[in-house]
Design a protein that fits this description.
By secondary structure, the chain is α/β, with parallel strands linked by helices. The chain is 19% helix and 32% strand. The strands form 4 sheets. Strands 4-3-6-1-2-5 form a 6-stranded antiparallel beta sheet, with helices on one face. The chain has a 5-stranded parallel beta sheet with strand order 9-8-7-10-11, with helices on both faces. The structure holds FE2/S2 (inorganic) cluster (FES).
Length: 356
């Protein structure tokens, strides 16, 4: 699977909050199949900003049933793309967009009778909103609870849409807001969503409930602590799904394991779109994606933080180690898939394919 960015027109821009806009794309008819998606997936978007190509991944907040492709972009401090989207982009502008991707998926089935628990913090709501809508639209016997963390009332993205879902699906959907900077009169809805908070949710809102699926999107601390809280309460880890929310390409990285070993030279062969090229690498130098790009290769990527999996490829020969991996599940790693933006060669020869 090579890189394919399409010029896609912005059909609609809506100001969702003071610092967040949503973009709806006008997908041409001949790309409709290519742009089919599952709730929870994201779009990789690129644009030239101040002379530089800037690429980011944004989760779709619409559902496949709605037939639209919509993402929300919250303006973050020093965020090049998010500022551009909030301040400059307008209806009718063209952006370069990749087809939907991502492993954070909720597949619905009309026969399901599941109890889903969703967690979102800030703009982590985007894939979660898509999932909730899919459940409500397609699983009449299932129920959904959303715990949604924000600074306060005015920073809730999609507030009206969520409220109207709550009113429309009274029996199926409940929503609990948690505010870090506003007091709404009770302690359980105050602060941040963490382990302690989730322990409290389990004793109150979720008391005696069987839980079939937990879906989280937000910062690493929320994901880690809520997951631990569920595991301590006997919820099987297979039922817990998450996507790390990242607002920029500057993810903090853990130490590359290869730096602990003696540095050595490696010949990395990369296959893409039926073609191949070689890279001479140091085991403790740049990661595979960065070095390939420095050498002029056009490889797929978005976050460069080990989060989105756009840069996924399969190791066919040799070994690599990843600095971090927030995107691939254990089965994919077992099958040899790696995130090239996090990968360093661990053998003198490596063959890696974007086509498998
Ligand atoms: S580019 Fe997102 S995980 Fe590598």
């Amino acid at each position: 699977m090579g890189v394919q960015l399409y010029d896609i027109k912005i059909k609609e821009i809506t100001k969702e909050t003071e610092d967040c806009v949503s973009l709806t794309f006008d997908i041409p008819n001949d790309l409709k199949n290519e742009f089919n998606f599952f709730s929870g997936q994201y779009l990789t978007i690129e644009n030239k900003i101040n002379g530089e190509n800037v690429r980011r991944a944004y989760s779709l907040c619409s559902t496949p049933d709605e037939g639209i492709h919509k993402v929300a972009i919250k303006k973050i401090k020093d965020g090049v793309f998010s500022s551009y989207a909030n301040d400059i982009l307008k209806k009718g502008d063209l952006l370069r967009v990749m087809k939907p991707m991502g492993n954070f998926i909720l597949n619905t089935d009309i026969n399901n009778s599941n109890n889903y628990i969703f967690y979102a913090a800030g703009s982590g709501i985007t894939p979660i909103l898509s999932m909730i809508k899919s459940v409500l639209l397609n699983e009449p016997k299932s129920s959904a609870t959303l715990f949604y963390g924000n600074k306060g009332f005015s920073s809730i993205i999609f507030r009206e849409e969520l409220e109207s879902l709550k009113n429309k699906y009274l029996e199926q959907f409940r929503m609990v807001h948690v505010f870090s900077k506003e007091n709404i009169g009770n302690t359980i809805q105050q602060g941040r969503i963490n382990r302690e908070k989730n322990d409290a949710f389990l004793k109150t809102f979720l008391k005696n409930e069987d839980i079939d699926g937990v879906y989280l999107c937000g910062p690493e601390s929320m994901i880690k602590e809520v997951s631990e809280s569920f595991k301590n309460h006997g919820v099987n880890k297979e039922k817990i799904h998450f996507e790390l929310f990242t607002s920029s390409s500057s993810q903090k990285k853990s130490t590359n394991k290869s730096t602990k070993q003696k540095s050595f030279d490696s010949l990395v062969t990369i296959q893409i779109d039926g073609d191949s090229f070689d890279l001479e690498m140091k085991s403790d130098g740049d990661n595979i994606l960065d070095l390939a790009q420095k050498n002029g290769a056009d490889l797929p990527f978005a976050c460069k933080g080990g989060v989105c999996c756009t840069c996924k490829a399969k190791v066919l020969k040799g070994k690599v180690s990843m600095e971090v991996n927030y995107a691939l599940d254990a089965d994919e790693v077992e099958d040899g898939y790696v995130l090239t933006c996090q990968s360093h060669p661990q053998t003198k020869e490596v063959l890696i394919s974007f086509d498998d």
